[in-house]
Structures are given as C-alpha cells and as structure tokens.
Amino acid sequence: MIANWNIGRHIVEFEQGGKARAEYGKELLKRLAVDLTARYGRGFSRSKLIYMRLFYLMFPKGATASHLLSWSHYLEILKVEDALARDFYVNECERAGWGVRELRRQIESSLFERYALSRDKKGVLALANKGAEPARPEDIVREPFVFEFTGINPVRRYTEKSLESRLCARLEDFMLELGKGYSFVGRQYAMQIGASRFKVDLVFYNRFLRCFVLIDLKRKGVTHRDIGQMNLYLNYFQNEESAPDDNPPIGILLGSIRDNVVVEYAMQGITNKLFVARYQLYMPDREQLRRELAYMLKSESSPKSKAASI
Q1: CB-neighbour burial class of residue 18 (10 A; exposed 0-12, middle 13-18, buried 19+)
Q2: In this structure, which CATH number among 3.40.190.10, 3.30.420.10, 3.40.50.450, 3.40.1350.10 belongs to the domain 145-283?
Q3: Is 0.90 topped by the overall pTM?
Q4: 95-101 contacts at long range (C-beta below 8 A, 24 or more positions apart)
Q5: Could you tell me if 35 and 45 are in contact, meaning their C-beta atoms sit under 8 angstroms apart?
Q6: Which of 48, 67, 108, 183 sits in a 20 to 30 Å window from 175, CA-based?
Q7: CA gyration radius, the chain
C-alpha cells in the first residue's frame, strides 16, 4: 500500500513536476512501466500506474489512507469521483469490515447518496467524516432501500411472500443493505393480542440503538391501515417483548411506492418510531442521485433558501 502511494507520489511530484493536472501522457506511463518492471519484476503495468497516480492525488496525505484496507479495496474506492463519498466508503469499509464484493455493491447502489439525501449539509459532512453508525432511529432509514440481490424481475408480478422469502434466502445481503448492528430475530413473528393473532413479516434487533426493529413488506404502496397496524405491533413489542433497558421499538413499512400525503395524515398523532420507506428491485440511477444531492446542498447554502426558512 505504502509502495503504491509512493510510486504515485513520484509520478506526480517528479515526473509531472508537482502539477496534478499536467498532461502526463501515455508515453510517460509506458516508459515508467517498462523501467519499473525491468527493475522490480511484474506488477507495474501502465493501468496499475494510472491507479497509483490517482491514489496519491486523491489521498495526498498518505496517513489519511486506511492501512486496514487492501489495494483491491482502494481500486474500487478510486472509481468514486466525489471526495465526501470516498471518505465515507473508507470509513464504512474500515469499521464494517466489508470485503471487496460488499464494498463494490455498496458503491454501485449509491449508498452514500441514499444516506446523504436524508440529511442536511452538516449531516452530510458528518456522514463522510464519521460513517453511518446509527445514533437515532432516523439514521437507519435510507431512501430507497435496494433489493437487487433478490433477483426478482420488477416487470413481472411478484408477491409480498415471495419477496420476503428471497430476502430471507439472502439474509447476509439483506442485513448488509439494512446497515450496521442488526441481528435476525424471526420471520412471520406471531403476536397474540387479545383474541386476535397477528404476524409481522420480519423482526431484527439493533445493538447500536438497543431496540427491536420490525419490518413489514408491501408489494405496492403503504396504506393508512398498514400504518395503524404497525403502530399496534410497536405498542405490543414495547409492552410485551422489550427488556426494561431496551429503547422503544422501531417500525419500518417498506413499499415499492409511497403516497406522501396519505403517509403524512396517517402518521399524525403517532408517537412511536414508525417510518414509511421505499424499496427498489434494481440499482438506482447514480447520476440522478448525485444531481439531487448536489442540488440539495446548493439550495441549502443559498441566501434565498435561508431567507425562506426564517
């Protein structure tokens, strides 16, 4: 790792005269590849030198690059254009212990942008610098959740039961998408409330938030009845399942579409930690998410937006 950074530094500082944007050209890297291969053996192709150069440019202070990550990790991170997003993936990868496959999937699913769009500018900076360790119930919700690993074709008809089965069959991937600190409690978790018997699709426990997390899946939109029912489940868990030192349980209703007006009215008066979120069966449009995030940060910092919020 250090050797790769030093070679990148040599290319920029000595071969390019310290000019990061200099036209270093193909011939320079070809020549360096030949010289280094002759001197040290294999492992110094022109393409690898390109990434070594990028490594130095994107992490000019070598100490900021995590020594807990492999060169293969950095090959994925160097493909990320935004500096805040790069810092986020380094922090998350280091803390969560992602392998290269998990890291690649999180980058491809625009994890940083999906988290960041639910925060203000200060929250985005904190996300980049500290990662996404949940401190509040709101921190575990991302928009949207992405379930492409289930292999379900969004064009074809599927049922809530089949979606649940696919998620449980790929539980490791599902928990990676949910975030940090989850342990699986049960599927179709039964609750006897009065004379009636109810079942919630999926139950987890989050060790960071110290509470149960209940998830119900909806093939289409979430209705006011679904919200009322989840509120019932949360009341039950608070009184019957949670330990005395547990925090109040969290409920997440996941639908493929969301009617914000219905959600707004149905949620009024509910004091439980209940969230309605969207899921997708395909990877989101990364460029669109980047544009939305850039617009959000720009709007938030503009004088007009500040005046409107006063």
Answers
A1: exposed
A2: 3.40.1350.10
A3: no
A4: 95/131, 95/133, 95/180, 96/180, 98/73, 100/70, 100/72, 100/73, 100/76
A5: no
A6: 67
A7: 24
